[in-house]
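Session log. Operator J.P. requested a structure for one protein chain; no other inputs attached. Running the standard single-chain path with token output.
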Amino acid sequence: MSERRRDLARRAEELRDQRASVTVQLKDVAAELWRDGTKNVRELGRLTGLSRTTLYPALRERGIEPTDRTHREAGEQA
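Structure written below.
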């Protein structure tokens, strides 16, 4: 393997690690947004860039059941 290819492979690995870290951080931010009142998964997706199929399990992993509407405050909309 050439030196250039090794450098590029190393850089690709660094970027993959960064992406994984950023994704975890975005999931944490989504959970905080939910707790702060943004109770709409579609809106969370717009704000974080995460898909709804990513957000549902991420919220559940953080102790939030996004389909549970029983804990909403009076007057809050879906």
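Operator note: The mean pLDDT is 91.
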